[in-house]
Amino acid sequence: MEPSSSNTGFFQKQPIIRNQWHDDVSLQRVAKLFLPTSLLEEIAPDLSKLADEVLAPQIFTWVTDAERNLPYLLGSGRDSFGKPQSKLIVTEGWRKLQDFGLAKGFVALNYDTPSLGAHARLVQFLRCHVWTGSCANTLCPAAMQDGAARLLELHLTDPDSRSRLSPLELSVFQNAFDHLTSRDPSRAWTSGQWMTERPGGSDVSLTETVATYLPDPSPAGLASPPSEGVPLGPYSVSGFKFFSSATDSSCAVLLAKTSPSKPVSAFFAPMRRQNPSLISPTGVEGGEELNGITIQRLKHKFGTQSLPTAELELKGTRAWMIGGEGQGIREVSTMLNITRVHTTASTMGYLGRSLGIARAFAAVREVGAGKGARVSLAGHPLHMRTLAGITEGYHGMMLLTFFTLKVLGLDEKGKRKGKGEGGWDTVPTPAEEMVPYLLRVLSSLHKSYVCENAVPLVYQCMESLGGVGYMQNVESEHLNVSRLFRDACVGAIWEGTTDVLASDTVRALKHPVQGKNCIEAVGWFVLSGLDKVKNGPVKDTLKREWQGLKGKIESKSQAELLPEARGITFRLAEVLIAVLYLLDAAAHPGVEIEAMCHRYLRAKGFVVDGSNEDVKGGLELDQAIVYGPGNQPSKPSSKL
Ligand code: UCC
């Protein structure tokens, strides 16, 4: 027998990461369920190409660079003579990934492709889904770019808001909107979102940042780039922001108080301005500097390490007010509702990629099967049962996420229906007047549920690779599931924690004016969804479950419901997922989806079938769930 050495003996065969568009059965199913067939056929070639491009070796080289060479503050924030300077350095990998994302229009698509109408969000997030696992967190600034674009779009298009803006404000907002929705990386802007301060994360009522109306003395300063001649805003903002993600953005939406007695207001600030009195190192007069912003320090985080997150001191930052004075929560909610959707969709993207890695590993890894027999993990009954369980949970959350995206698309572009209507109503489409109420509930509920419940599943994918899964794997970046796990963990924390969002879901359902409409909208979806599926006892169970939740919400006060907010939100999410699972299984039937649906309903207690088996079905069914029908990489082992 030859002893092994560092270069001889067993070496694991390389796991092959497949094109996620073709390999991810759940992604294919949600696309088929939510999009009209003709539109899906039209976009599929581009999605397939994109899913190849995001797995290119160059992309992973940039990811490794962005993760390994972390952003830093040149000279710890000082020049050679000790004078403060805030020079943030990000690596080439980060910049290239950012440029790739901007050029691919991961945000722009929602704004520059009117023919997609209400389907735009669905198409946008199918694309984001395959990008997430390769983007090294560049989708974070993209999320805020999207939120800022949407907020400005509303002000630029809503007749009432428009009428309140001066011609100058209109041109400033239009200019920013054009940059935020550009696909040209040399022009495109990402945005920051500065809310959090030291007194509170989710609670912005104690904001200590102060905005003073102080129109700039003549001549008004210019924002960068000077060629556009855009003046700086009339407000001077000073304060301290404790968490600023994506400090390399070109602009920010921020909250500040105009008076101690008024709630917060929202502001738009360019990140940089022109300063004629600056002297360059070669003596040239005039130049660009941060707009009254000092980077105090960069944060050290558990995950999202490539992302430059900073503490910022604002001193005389020039800004424009967005919306009315004291209306900051209302304004920033528009942005938050977009960044929350991005957070959830990214979490699903991390889980989807992690499952892809787990499938690839299982296809090539063999383990002992007793008495000298060997079996591939893809032929191992317990391993396949575990991956089938993750797949079942993943698909349920994908359904909820894409349902939320459908409603978001309707809210934004309801009157502009996209082409290819056939199949659009397979999942019931709410009436126009119901959409805002359904969205109000879903936008908190989906993040609260998905971001919390997906993390253990990403962890299980990491675990399924054994010790290799726990490694950083920068030498095989495409397999780096531990990076995906670290990055996925933030989803349940930023943009409002699980508890904050569960409380907000209950707040929406108990709202003194709109609460009844919110409850009615959710009830409408549960009942009309169930109407579309075949009769069965589970329909009555789900109706009863909904009635029980509704009764509880209606009969108790918001304060009484608060300690139960997580339970209520999660159960409501599970009812919605159950309805969506039934709709999916009915629309595109198959042994695998029916089994997944049944297992889901049983696991959540919606079906009690009296059997003492955990799930029905054997290895072949589990393999078909994991790899998709007909795609099983290995025949079941006869030795087990
Ligand atoms: O900025 C951050 C880091 C950026 C990282 C970006 C990553 C993007 C994802 C990347 C993916 C890869 S993290 C910032 C984290 N902070 C938050 O998320 C804030 C969490 N806090 C909340 O959600 C709070 O509920 C607030 C701030 C929205 C509201 O606070 P308050 O103090 O409770 O406000 P009020 O005054 O009680 O509520 C004002 C009104 C209420 O309506 P009325 O007055 O009619 O009763 C609420 O129902 O605002 C309403 N409201 C909403 N309306 C509250 N939330 C919403 C909402 N989401 N939509 C509509």
From TrEMBL:
<dbReference type="Pfam" id="PF00441">
    <property type="entry name" value="Acyl-CoA_dh_1"/>
</dbReference>
<comment type="similarity">
    <text>Belongs to the acyl-CoA dehydrogenase family.</text>
</comment>
<keyword id="KW-0285">Flavoprotein</keyword>
<dbReference type="InterPro" id="IPR036250">
    <property type="entry name" value="AcylCo_DH-like_C"/>
</dbReference>
<dbReference type="GO" id="GO:0003995">
    <property type="term" value="F:acyl-CoA dehydrogenase activity"/>
</dbReference>
<dbReference type="InterPro" id="IPR009100">
    <property type="entry name" value="AcylCoA_DH/oxidase_NM_dom_sf"/>
</dbReference>
<dbReference type="InterPro" id="IPR009075">
    <property type="entry name" value="AcylCo_DH/oxidase_C"/>
</dbReference>
<protein>
    <recommendedName>
        <fullName>Acyl-CoA dehydrogenase/oxidase C-terminal domain-containing protein</fullName>
    </recommendedName>
</protein>
<feature type="domain" description="Acyl-CoA dehydrogenase/oxidase C-terminal">
    <location>
        <begin position="441"/>
        <end position="508"/>
    </location>
</feature>
<keyword id="KW-0274">FAD</keyword>
<dbReference type="InterPro" id="IPR052904">
    <property type="entry name" value="Acyl-CoA_dehydrogenase-like"/>
</dbReference>
